[in-house]
Amino acid sequence: MEVGRLPISASQRGKLIAAGYTTLSSFSSLSPSHLARAVWDWILTIDNLVKRGFTLVNRCCTCRYCEESVDHLLLHYLKISDNEAAEIMRVASHSHRLDGSAGGCGTVNGAQTAWDMLHEEEMFPRITTSCEDLNNILGGGINCKEVTEIGGVPGIGKTQLGIQLAINVQIPVDYGGLGGKAIYIDTEGSFMVERALQIAEACIEDMSECGGLLRKDFQACQLKMHPNNILENIFYFRVCSYTEQIALINCLDKFISEHKDVKIVIVDSVTFHFRQDFDDMALRTRLLSGMALKLMKLAKDFSLAVVLLNQVTTKYIDGSFQLTLALGDSWSHSCTNRVILYWNGNERYAYIDKSPSLRSASAPYSVTSKGIRNSASNCKRIKMM
Amino acid sequence: MANKQISQMGLPKSIANVFAARNVFTAKDALSLTEFELMELLDVGLAQVTSAVAHISEIVCPPYQTALSLMELRVQNEHLAGHLPTHMKGLDEALCGGIPFGVLTELVGPAGIGKTQFCLKLSLLASLPASYGGLDGHVIYIDVESKFSSRRLIEIGVKSFPEIFHRKGMAQEMAGRIHVLRPASLSEFTESLQQIKVSLLQNQVKLLVIDSMAALVTGIGGCSTLFREFEHAAPRQNTLGWHVSFIKSLAEFSRIPVVVTNQVRSQSRDEICHYYFQVQSWNETIEDRTRHDSHLVAALGINWAHAVTIRLVLEAKSDQRFIKVAKSPISPPLAFPFNITSSGILLLSDDGIELTGPDINAIHCQGLSLRFCWVNLQKNIEWMPKTTIGHYLKCGALNADGIHHLVFLLVAFQWNNFIRTDKLKLFNFTDHAM
Fold first, then answer.
1. Nearest-CB residue to B242 (from A255, A276, A343)
2. Which of A223, A254, B154, B243 has the least CB density, counted as fewest CB within 10 Å?
């Protein structure tokens, strides 16, 4: 590994390179003090001179005043103290380990076997979307520990799905849910509390019905949830610029460590601030990929689901305009799963565009006054209010 | 928040100085760089950079609220939990009380359908005292195409709320609360937005109306043509980017309703877009083509369509006008038939017709007879309810001056079909043009 790639400050790197250490292997076997001393091997020291056949009085060759000693040279000339050297060594050995070229004996540090991962996956139930067809194509629901991107044209129901998920994550464990809390990051101002209340009430109704059917021995269905309790467990952040969006995602791990039962983070929508007023596309790509990485890390570390809602744009491919999700090609690699919501005739459909474990399929769903439900093409929909 | 100075954030002196030395002054500059880039730039170790970025992020990060506290706050502090009632019962029910505060509501429809009438009515409602269901506040009306008619406003007021307006001085007070701005260009509009922000902070303004947004972008503002339809007008989407965010944030922090009108343009066949996985059979394409031929599309593009929260589509189908709730997070897709009367807009039925499918977004203009805002007949500014030009000509209700005026207006309006400027010969009407 190149020294140029190590995460150390520029001046430290410069010193290493000037001393002739360009790769990790050249100093990885040294101890910090050795490194500190070895770095300035090129200075003419007494030993070197003696080696070359010059006998001199013990004076430092540069200042010609003090007695030459290791500490004198360290302190005054290269200013690479023992501390700095220790730091460089720590970073170097850490990077070395990650490289995997550490002699290759036994398991690689930090890896997990596939068998363990399978067991882990089974421990976390998926978050239902309240629509059976949609759940089926998603393999049961939205998966925890993964980043799912959902995109569609305006008015197709992205925010509705987001609110539904924020409420469904709170379904108690007894009823097959996760019993967790939700973080809703709103960048467009489309979160309407009245709608969340409606969906929460409908969810509680469904749960009591379900509970009544399944647990006839249970006394009075034990469901003490009130819609206000559900609303209380949704943490709402309103973000007004991309700077705030990045800052918020930086702070999320601290927030989630304080509120341990957050099980889903919904960003509605991740695109909005990055589409307005952005001239430097390269910067945008860098910021977006940084953000995606942080979100993935969040999902993995805290075992929660991350759902990103995206907008659409048109792209000119093969002589015609096609609809595609916004933010460009490099962003399309950032998410683990991708679901596209679209109109098919008079019905709303969801299509699994990209997933490592699910096959491409589409399923119909509908948006009713109760939230996202199965597509009911033959039964009459209840009018709202 | 994004422009907060790093020097005021309480970072340790040494690192704050380094930031300043490298021209990284605001939080936005700092957070726009990745941690490695910052390390390169500032020449400090990774740990220091990480902790500095974490500190900055914490300060810039917006505060959180639970959805419950959000709701309670709104119910307590705001009129009807944050809605401006439109006095159209069906629409108010569909929108959970009325036009919501803090978000952008868009009115889109072909020319002459009633968007400006709706805006006038809303301005009036916002200025009414609270006892009559109003917001008791000032209204800022940005009138790009000079369509604002104070005479019409008073007429609506007198007909809808006679008990208020017949009292002495009330009409003056109500009308005095409506401030009309007429920016002639996009840059003037930008300036006035900044001023509006300041006056919003003084908490007197309760409604912002922008009529119309599309005219600003296409650069034709200030001339008094009454009708406009653009064929294949290519809106420059980027020019609106900053304005959209700014208006949305204005609406948010001051918690006022913002109503914006938009125009329509016709949709060309190659604009019909699908995803790559939507395979179109041959039969379907024929059907789609005929379907879309008669469709108009909202101007300003898909980016704008994403940015608005509520979209109300006004259209005319088989000689009846409809107002449709096309995009709304709180309402089902309902269409209400309506008419324009002397007291504003009147819904013919409070039970909306529920439309399934993407048809709710379609904008029809069939059987729409021209509506003239005013035509100077015999030197009178008169209201002409919907009547066809042909009818007028047939019954000879126009004198020579009137016909001249009419023809001038028609030529200014880009119909697909021809109109001869020969005074009395108007021909080539299609059944849905006239």
1. A276
2. A254
- Spatial distance between the Cα atoms of B107 and B104, rounded to a whole number of angstroms: 10
B108 vs A: CB within 8 A = no
- Please name the residue of chain B whose CA is at the shortest distance from the CA of residue A294: B34
Instruction: Name the residue with higher pLDDT: A109 or B108.
Output: B108
CB neighbour burial string for A272-282, b if at least 16 within 10 angstroms, e if fewer: bbbbbbeeeee
Q: How many pairs of residues across A and B have Cβ atoms under 8 Å apart?
A: 215
How far apart are alpha carbons A308 and A338 in whole angstroms?
Answer: 9
Q: Which residue of B68, B248, B270, B287 is the best one to mutate when testing the A interface, meaning the one whose CB has the most A CBs within 10 A?
A: B68
What DSSP string describes B101-152?
TTSEEEEE--TTSSHHHHHHHHHHHHHS-GGGTS--SEEEEEESSS---HHH
- Tell me which chain B residues have a C-beta less than 8 angstroms from the C-beta of A344: 278
Query: What is the reported pLDDT for B311?
Result: 92
Other residues' Cβ atoms within 10 Å of the Cβ of residue A216: 8
For residue B411, the model assigns a pLDDT of: 42
What's the gap in Å between the CA of B340 and the closest CA on chain A?
26
Instruction: Mention every residue, 6+ apart, whose C-beta is less than 8 A from residue A256.
Output: A183, A262, A298, A302, A304
Residue in chain B closest to A343 (alpha carbons) equals B358
d(C-alpha B408, C-alpha A82), whole Å? 88
The CATH superfamily holding the domain A117-384 is P-loop containing nucleotide triphosphate hydrolases (3.40.50.300)
d(CA A304, CA A145): 5
CATH 3.40.50.300-classified regions of chain A? 117-384
Cβ distance of A312 and B302 shorter than 8 Å: yes
Provide the 3-class DSSP secondary structure of residue A326.
coil
ipTM over 0.85: no
Mean pLDDT of chain A: 79
**CB within 8 Å of chain A, chain B residues 64-103:** 64-68, 70-71, 74, 81, 93-94, 96, 100, 102-103
Task: Please indicate whether, in this complex, the C-beta atoms of A154 and B327 are within 8 angstroms of each other.
Answer: yes
Using pLDDT thresholds of 50, 70 and 90, give the confidence band for residue B10: confident
Contact, B58 vs B77, CB < 8 A? no
A349-381 confidence digits (pLDDT tens): 999 999 998 889 999 999 988 888 988 764 444
| Tens digit of each residue's pLDDT (9 = 90 or more) over B309-364 | 999 999 888 888 899 998 888 888 889 999 888 888 888 888 888 887 777 888 87
Q: Answer whether B267 touches A (CB < 8 Å).
A: no
B281 CA: distance to closest CA in chain A (Å): 13
Contact yes or no for A321 and B271 at CB 8 A: yes
pLDDT of residue A237: 93
Q: Quick check: B100 and A192 CB within 8 A? A: yes
